[in-house]
Each structure stands twice: as structure tokens, then as C-alpha cells.
Design brief:
Strand order of the largest sheet: 2-8-7-6-5-3-4
Order of helices and strands: EHHEHEHEEHEEEHHHEEHEEEH
Number of helices: 10
Oligomer: single chain
Helix content: 25-40%
Radius of gyration: 21 Å
Structural class: alpha/beta
Strand content: 5-15%
Largest sheet: 7 strands, mixed
Length: 352
């Protein structure tokens, strides 16, 4: 090792789902929405004056922040926006977890949490889920430097009742509790009403799933004015101009059409529930997912074998060769036609 490398921060990076260059595939591995964003987003793109690109974007992203605040009935000072919820969570970790006590999050959850902890030098402890992949609130009633709960959880799709989450928040008045609600629009009850009750609660959302805008990279968080203020202080100490003008306008436009949003989400929910039944008929064991994906374990063949055989057929799903979850596949809910193609392929693979 060269001498200068001794001072390099070394971490094991997060590994995202594969992004195949070939577009002629069925892509069910990264939980993208199979339907386009609201028509108002297209209108913004068609009418945008490219001469505006010579100017810096609004650093506070006011048009986007105000649209989110109006949609949820909160004050704009309670909204933080970032370049995808990953950016929002990254800033949250950097800002809010500045203690020598370990932060807590489940052992099976979004695999970026431990990466941020490592890169920022934050001590952490993973808390085992129960055998049914649910969380036990009592496990989080101990001294800590913060708590992070994805609800519904990923990759399991399991939702924890708001009363369970509130029990955790109530037990931790001296540390911040982050509830990552990336998938909440597909099922379950939000913790958003609790932000006015608990100053130490941060609720994080994304446009990538339910709003069909993963390519735009829009994430946001809602919390107390004080908490959001601290996050903005850190954000503007790193980079003031993180979100481009077009993205801000498109994000605001998306919030205006709630009926289209609901229609898109409801189609995915209907397909998800139909898919659960079909997977059960094919012999899969699965959780009761409340997200836009299904966490399912094939019983006739190994998950790794099914994963590889599907890939040969140009159908991409997600597989982790990790303890406890190595018997499961995470399958994004696509269109009805895409799911039917998947089921046909699974019949061939499992019965072949």
C-alpha cells in the first residue's frame, strides 16, 4: 500500500440492483414504477425554456418544497428536499447522528444504512428481526444514538403498525428516530401525523416509487422546524445547488395531480395482490408485502437457481446471497402483462 493510501477513507459501498444496458428485458429488480409520471410532468418538460439552464437553480427549491407542504398540510419550514431519498437520508445521518452511542436499525433492512454509518464514522448496532420479519419495539428501548426504521421494510415488504413505531419514538426522547417511508403509499399507515407530537421524528419519502420519477431523483423529509433547520444547515455547508431547476418544477407538477397518482398506485396494489395469489399457487412462501414488490421464497428450487434461470430469460429480479434472506427473491410489481410473463417463466423453471 502506498503511503498516501493510509489516510484514505475506505468503505464497502452500497450495491444497487443491476441496470441492464439491454432495454428489451422485463426489469423487476429495482422497484421502479411501471407506469409513467403524471401528465403535468410531460407538460413541464415540453414547455421548459432551455435558456434557464444558464442560471443556478433555486437553492431552497421553494416551488417544490411549497408544493409538498401544501399537499400534506404542513408548513414549508417542516420540509427538507434532496436528490433522491438516499441524499436526504445521507444528510440526516450526517446531521442527526453525532454521538458516540450506536444507532440502531434492523439486521434485515435497506442495505445503505450501514454504508452511511461506516462512511461517516457513526457507531451502529443491527437489531435482529423476529422469525416472521417483524420488529420488536422493546429491542429499541435502550441507550442509543438514534434509530432508523424502514416502514414498510425493505426487502421484506413487512409493515409495522404505527402504534409500534410510536412506542419506539416515545421510548427515545433523547435521540432522533428516522422512519423511512419510501413505500408507504402502497400500504399501511403513515407516521406523518406524529411529527407535530415528537420533535425528534423525521419521516422520509421519495418520488422514485409511487410517483414514477426514479430518474429525476427527488426525495424529501418531514419533521419539526428545528430538526429540518439543522439538516438544512449541514446541506448548505456542503452544496447549495443540489437539485436542478427542471427537477424542481417536475416535482411540483407531480404533486398537483392526486387522482392520477392514486390511480397509478391502485393499479400496482391490485397487481401485487393478484401476483401474491399466483405465486402461492406456484408454491412460493412469502411475506404479506405492503410495498410495490413481493418478497418470495421458492420451495421447489433454490432462490439462486430461479434468479439465474429468470435472468437467462431476460427477466431481472433481485437476489442476495446473504444469511436468512438467501432463500428469497425480491420481485418488483410490474404491469399485469409483465407479471404474466414472469409467471409463465416460473412455471417452466419450477416444473422443469
Amino acid at each position: 500500500m502506498n503511503k498516501w493510501e493510509e489516510n484514505v477513507r475506505k468503505v464497502v459501498p452500497y450495491v444497487p440492483g443491476e441496470q441492464p444496458k439491454d432495454t428489451n428485458v422485463i426489469k423487476l429488480n429495482t422497484n421502479e414504477n411501471p407506469y409513467p409520471p403524471a401528465p403535468e410532468v410531460r407538460e413541464i418538460l415540453d414547455s421548459f425554456d432551455e435558456s434557464r439552464m444558464r442560471l443556478y437553480p433555486a437553492p431552497n427549491a421553494d416551488v417544490l418544497v411549497d408544493s409538498i407542504a401544501e399537499h400534506y398540510g404542513v408548513d414549508s419550514s417542516q420540509i427538507f428536499v434532496g436528490v433522491g431519498s438516499d441524499d436526504v437520508l445521507s444528510i440526516a445521518f450526517l446531521t442527526l447522528f453525532n454521538s458516540d452511542k450506536p444507532i440502531l436499525f434492523p439486521d434485515i433492512t435497506y442495505s445503505f444504512y450501514d454504508v452511511w454509518a461506516d462512511v461517516y464514522g457513526i457507531p451502529y448496532k443491527t437489531v435482529p428481526l423476529r422469525s416472521d420479519f417483524t420488529i420488536n419495539a422493546d429491542d429499541y428501548k435502550c441507550e442509543n444514538g438514534g434509530v432508523v426504521i424502514a416502514n414498510p421494510n425493505a426487502p421484506t415488504g413487512v409493515f409495522a403498525d404505527v402504534l409500534v413505531i410510536e412506542d419506539i419514538i416515545r421510548a427515545n426522547p433523547d435521540s432522533v428516530v428516522i422512519v423511512d417511508e419510501a413505500y408507504i403509499d402502497f400500504g399501511g399507515e403513515t407516521c406523518l401525523p406524529l411529527i407535530d407530537k415528537y420533535e425528534n421524528l423525521l419521516v422520509v419519502r421519495t418520488y422514485s416509487k409511487s410517483r414514477s420519477m426514479a430518474g429525476m431523483r427527488i426525495g424529501y423529509a418531514m419533521g419539526s422546524r428545528k430538526l429540518i433547520g439543522y439538516m438544512n444547515d449541514v446541506k448548505f455547508s456542503i452544496n447549495s445547488y443540489t437539485m436542478n431547476t427542471v427537477t424542481q418544477l417536475c416535482g411540483a407538477a407531480s404533486m398537483k395531480n392526486d387522482s392520477y397518482f392514486r390511480e397509478s398506485v391502485n393499479k400496482i396494489i391490485a397487481t401485487r395482490e393478484r401476483s401474491k395469489k399466483r405465486l402461492a399457487e406456484l408454491g412460493f412462501k412469502m411475506t404479506d408485502s405492503m410495498t410495490n414488490f413481493i418478497f418470495a421464497s421458492p420451495q421447489k428450487k433454490s432462490a439462486e437457481y430461479v434468479f439465474n434461470e429468470l435472468k437467462k430469460r431476460r427477466i431481472f429480479v433481485r437476489y442476495w446471497n446473504k444469511p436468512i434472506i438467501c432463500d428469497y427473491l425480491r420481485i418488483t410489481v410490474g404491469t399485469d402483462a409483465e407479471m404474466d410473463t414472469l409467471f409463465t417463466a416460473l412455471e417452466e423453471i419450477l416444473n422443469g
